[in-house]
Design goal:
This protein is mainly alpha-helical and 86 residues long. It is built from five helices and no strands.
């Protein structure tokens, strides 16, 4: 129990550090970051602040993982590309 409380406090502190990425900033860039990750980029190496936020924010992590799954399914041919309407 004590360890869980300490972990929660550390997560809250990490999310609110000066210069840290917030949910609004993450949301605005999810698609770009997910495309990079789906292409094999190591986000830990190129976007450590984003990864740190995703590790402590379950809502952002869930949305990011959903977008990433969709992109990977498209890349593997499991999803049809949307057709443009005339």
């Amino acid at each position: 129990m004590y360890e869980n409380i300490v972990h929660l406090i550390e997560c809250i502190s990490l999310v609110h550090q000066e210069g840290a990425i917030d949910c609004v900033s993450c949301d605005a860039q999810f698609h770009c970051w997910a495309e990079q990750a789906a292409s094999g980029a190591d986000l830990r190496a190129i976007l450590p602040d984003v990864v740190a936020h995703l590790e402590v924010c379950p809502e952002c992590r869930e949305e990011f993982e959903a977008i990433l799954c969709i992109l990977r399914a498209q890349q593997s041919g499991l999803l049809d590309e949307p057709q443009e309407s005339s």
